[in-house]
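Hi R.,

Here are the chain sequences for the assembly we discussed:
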Amino acid sequence: MLAQFLQFLFSGITVGATYALAALGFTLIYNASNVINFAQGEFIMLGGMLGVFFTMAGLPLPAALVLAILVPAIVGVLVEKLAIEPVKGAETVTLIIITIGASLVIRGLVQVWLGKETHSLPAFSGDTPIEVLGATLLPQSLWVLGVTALVVVALWYFFNRTLQGKAMLATSYNRLAAELVGINTGWVLFMSFAMSAALGALGGILITPITLTSYDVGIMLGLKGFVAAVVGGLGNGLGAVVGGLLVGILEAMGAGYISSAYKDAIPFVLILLILFFMPRGLFGGKSTERV
Amino acid sequence: MGKNAYFSLLFVAAILAVLPFVVPNSFYLDLAVRMAINAIIVLGLNLLIGFAGQISLGHAGFLGIGAYASAVLPTHFGWHPLLAMGAGAAATGLLAALVARPIFKLKGHYLAMATLGLGIIINIALRNEAQWTGGPDGMPVPAMGLLGFELSNDKQWYWVVAGLLVVSVWASLNLIDSPFGRALRALHGSEVASQVVGVDVVRYKVAIFVMSAVFASLMGSVTAHYVGFVSPNFSDFFHSIELVTMVVIGGMASVFGSLVGAVLLTALPQALATFEGWETVAFGAILMASMIFMPKGLVPTLAAKFGKGN
Amino acid sequence: MSMLEVKDLSIHFGGVKAVQNVSFSIDAGIVYSVIGPNGAGKTTLFNLITGVYKPTAGEIRLNGEAIHGKSPNELARRGVARTFQNLQICMNMSALENVMVGAHLRLDRNLFKASLRLPALRRRDTELRKEAADLMDFVGLGSYVNSRADAMSYGALKRLEIARALAMQPRLIFLDEPAAGLNPKETIEVDHLVRKIADSGVTVVLVEHDMKMVMNLSDRILVLDYGKKLAEGTAEEVRRNPNVIAAYLGAHA
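And here is the predicted structure of the full complex:
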């Protein structure tokens, strides 16, 4: 009983960590520009896929992984420059459609250039499962959780203790005011897309040894990451992390105890429930529109 | 409705009347039927997205409900196809109303998320319940019978669908230029303003959402009978995006734009049929380019250019 | 009984007490102005009375009926119209259509009848177009009858909002800074327009910064400062009130 519960819990928080990184990516971009970046999932996919291909191309694993984070970051910046900047201040619908378009372009190009097959990366420290109270935990899971935790701490430090991070936060509270005090909001936008893509890509790399990767994993991962961001409260960093873990756990528990065929539906049922009963999410505040 | 709109409607009706005699073979006739079906769906969706300024990223889910109602109810329960179609539409309407009410009290991206979630849930359900729906492989659909007469060949379907299209365009044009239509457009222009003149904003959003969902369901049923087969892909996220792309590229808030968008983007996958990945890239590029360079869509942008030229 | 009665009305936004314990009443048929420095809570007060905000405490009664907390469209049903300090015009529609939307509640809004283009509906729409054109004339926008809203100037749009509000055939109209951003000539035109509206029997509640206009037009004035009521009375009484002079009129008197 306990073993089974723990098993689901472990797989839940592992994938939940990926959702958390995706959710953080959404949050960063939303805070900097009020845009919901539907292409976020594709950055996750790029991380895994590029990691595989740079390794297959002969690069040593660490170099391949670094590139697999850098290239998506560049793609993220491209998306910002080519898709978001030209339409600054457009309606929500317009922006949503543009980022969906960007995600299609990225996914399509990967499909054409890298094929439709599924791939994997070697686990970072071997495959031997660890026994914990009757349940098994993959070493890769520890990597996922550990690196994610480090990243979260690093982000916390960046936003609360460094000048650049505070500048980004200021921009998210009030863009105009931030510009007036000399903050380069264009740079903030640039950084938020780059960081967001890097976070997603990192998550993609970490999880590939466990869940494999292919050209179309981005859709579901991205959407679930978005669900996590909304569950935690859109725009709230802590909410993104908590939301990610929560979605991952609930998904695993639901798949384990209720029905595994409907595993993918669970996050979306969750978001409908959240939107019905607690639209601001767990940590989101109230806001009023001035007329 | 204005003189221009009236003439354009006649023009469309004329083209539809002449088409079957001009097409080289049944492949093109089939394409025409699919374009017309998509055009009707897009008309309904455009009322929601273009005119009322809302969004639906899961509309293919409603298509799926209609299509599978027409497949499952006659096959497993012996229902008459027309009854099944009606039941599909009723179920869709009910679902849309249930989901819309709580969601429309929120803004922009939340609605997008909710509709997206709904569409995905429907798609997964259709894919999973194999004993009813045939699972990922789909299932065949019995032919549609009308008053003892079975609709079975392409030509018959063409006239039915063409007729439906003309009626839909006429009804949409009337609707837009009416108190209901103005309230809808005012809602898009300024929600606050429409509220203070007495528009019950939530009720209107729900009404137009339900209406466009029911349109979709009915056309889903029509497609199911026409093709003779349904599969879960019909209700997937990509199909929902294709529909939104049709609205966007043809022209949001443009009735004739809906037709243009449907025609163009029904033809496109045929042209790119062998290059699946490129089809995805093309759709994505079209979406982006459209929104960046021609945010109003083809028809309104061209209309403005030629209007100024006169 | 007064047409509009406000008792101990308050609203907080987090720690900000935008409106505190404000009480006043407005009789039918007069021109009532609300003045005060920027940030005094005038627009917030409007938003409270017209249903855009819900009060934290207090009561608002329209002809005896409690209306606090009701939504704007419910208030529209009770004959309350308003214009906005920051224009709320539907730029996606023509000028005429913007005004026609004002008549929303007086029309048959049935969606099925609309799709079928029934003759009764078409007749009513033609009548409405004429009525809307007449209203645009009334507010001085006769030359814009065939314009699109997004082609009109700021000053013209402010008056379009008034035309839209009048299309509701309201009993009570709230004008939020109708002269803001207008040049002296336009301001005089708005002054005359407000007079015309009041003369037609509609009760007018006005927020304005232009003191000449306020003193000219108003039957009674309410002065707000920091969300609280500072003074209330006729133009003369308010002008002479030392607190008001100290807080606001100062160099402008």
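Chain C is about 40% helix and 25% strand. Chain C has a mean pLDDT of 88.

Let me know if anything looks off.

Best,
T.
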